[in-house]
Amino acid sequence: MFGEVLDGAFRTVRRNAAAMFGSAVLVEVLRAGAGAAMVPWITNFMARTATIGSRPSTTELNDMMSQFLAYMGISLGASLVVGFLSAILQGVMAVPVARSVLNRTTRFKMMWSLAKGRIWTLAGIGALMILGYTALAAVGVGLAIVLAMAAGAAGFFFAFIVGLGLLALGAWLFIKVSVAPAAAVVEDIGAVQALTRSWNLTRFNWWRILGITVVAAILVGVISQVVMIPIQFGMQMIVLTVAPHGGLNEAMAGITAVTLAGLAVGALVGALGFAFQTSVSSLLYMDLRMRHEGLDVELLRLLETGADPDGIPGRFGAPAR
Questions:
Q1: What CA–CA distance (Å, rounded) separates 222 from 226?
Q2: 130-143 per-position pLDDT tens digit
């Protein structure tokens, strides 16, 4: 049931905190590191913008635009790398989730030892997902440009409609392949086969998976905001108190300090959220196999016999597809 999935996800993260939270921190540290590397550039950009008058020259505008485009390109590249690593980690963290179904805890070293043979497969899944979403985004941008050039002002309206359609298509595809990383690790199958398995398992369950996934994301977002808002407010008050009448350099230094501190706290909060959402996704995968294939009966038999205590439950009984 819906509540059982969320409760199971919380309990899984709590019981396997070292494996799940510790691994999630690695990705979030990379994300925060990428953001921290951009902080000096952003503060410099803001400082230069503040010094430009109300009527900047063409050279100044071109320089600012080139810097902005470079920033957007670097940010997009960093996002793709983090998304790629997140897909890998999502599959690796399916190990403690599958074991938690039988009330078995998983240590950090054990989790990576059991999943190490599937890293390249998970990398392939991440690459295929990124290529698919990038192609979808490219199609959307291309259609928007063509419609805007062909139909003038009305083209922007049609481009907006097309954008909404592509956004809906992206959400549909995301749900259809959402359990592929877990399938690849638990069932020990290839990247394409894992995507096919996810596609088949989510059949007739799309809306249910979407609802649980959205609620989990909203829950993580609300908790993150509850934690981050007072912290950010407190850091900003410190900056205003320490240097209330400072110049531009003091203001930029304060903004840099607040931003870096926010990134550090955000990495910890984001790691908890990522571990929880990954746990929800992996539990949905196990649930789908129970509904479609009777996996629960085999898991009960495994629990009664106590066989394979250090393995991954669910690797047996998966049909070849």
A1: 6
A2: 888 888 888 877 87
**Residue 157 is which amino acid?**
F
Give the residue extent of every domain in the chain.
Answer: 2-51+64-122+204-303
Q: Percentages helix, strand, coil for the chain, rounded to the nearest 5?
A: 85, 0, 15
Residue 103 CB: number of other CB atoms within 10 A? 9
Alpha helices in 52-118 (DSSP H): 58-92, 94-100, 108-115
Query: pTM, whole model, 2 decimals?
Result: 0.78
Distance in angstroms (rounded) separating the CA atoms of residues 288 and 197? 11
Q: What is the pLDDT of residues 70-98, one digit of tens each?
A: 666 676 777 777 777 888 888 999 999 98
DSSP-derived secondary structure for 3-50: HHHHHHHHHHHHHTHHHHHHHHHHHHHHHHHHHHHHHHHHHHHHHHHH
Mean local confidence (pLDDT), 16-36 = 78
Q: Is the pLDDT of residue 321 over 50?
A: no
- The percentage of residues in the chain with a pLDDT greater than 70, rounded to a whole number, is 73
Cβ–Cβ under 8 Å, residues 235 and 258: yes
**Rounded to an integer, what is the distance from CA 60 to the centroid of its chain?**
37
User: Exposed e or buried b for every residue in 225-258, given b needs 16+ CB within 10 A?
Assistant: eeeeeeebeebeeebeeeeeeeeeeebbebbbeb
Q: What's the Cα-to-Cα distance from 234 to each of 109, 168, 209, 238, 262, rounded to whole Å?
A: 38, 39, 38, 6, 11
